[in-house]
Amino acid sequence: LDPAVGTTFYLAECYEHLGKLASAWTYYMEAAGAAQVAGQKDRADFAAKRAESLKPRLIRLVITVPEPLRALPGLEVKRDGLLLGAALWGTPVPIDPGRHALAVTATGKQRWQQVVDAVDEGKTLTIELPPLADPPRAVAPVVSAPPPLRHHGPPPAPALGPQRIVGFAVGGVGLVSLGIGAAFGGIALSRQAESNQ
């Protein structure tokens, strides 16, 4: 939490050996400043020289933010998840080699993001942020009305179901029985008349 000058310097050396030159340069500069405050001129000069030797090899990233984009409410520009203040916009900032994720958000706008590959030592990469798109609007589904009803004559007669067939059969049997009963009744009356005579 409160590193000594030597610890900061050795940490800078570790980053330099790992190829993370921007991190190494940052810690060399921090060690030089801390040594200067502590009155350790030799250490301050040595750390400053090491930082100066890395300068030509640093990869720098410039993020350009156009004026219309700056005017958006709630605008946030981030690199690798870290918020970049407006003071760093348009400024060449040293970055370590590798892939870096850029993201831009603003109130009422769609998020923009891009991955930048930093590979060549000593190069300066410039990224101009594009305008942010509006969020897509929800579109109500189109419901088509049902086709109008068309009348072509009287509706077709319903088909005979099983219950109607059974009803007709029972009715027919009843009519036949009634006819037979009437015939036998007529015969009986005729014979009765003959016997009375």
Report on the structure:
This protein is 42% helix and 18% strand. With 197 residues, it is of the alpha+beta class. The chain has a 4-stranded antiparallel beta sheet, with no helix packed on it. It has a 3-stranded mixed beta sheet with strand order 4-1-7. The termini are far apart.
Task: Explain briefly what this protein structure is.
The chain has 197 residues and is an alpha+beta fold. It has five helices and seven strands, in the order αααβαββββββα. The model has no long low-confidence stretch (mean pLDDT 84).
Total beta-strand segments: 7
Order of SSEs: HHHEHEEEEEEH
Q: Globular, elongated, flat, extended or rod-shaped: what is the shape?
A: rod-shaped
Mean pLDDT: 84
Number of helices: 5
- Give the low-pLDDT segments: none
Q: Strand percentage, roughly?
A: 15-25%
Strand order, largest beta sheet: 3-2-5-6
> What distance separates the N and C termini?
145 Å
Largest sheet entry: 4 strands, antiparallel
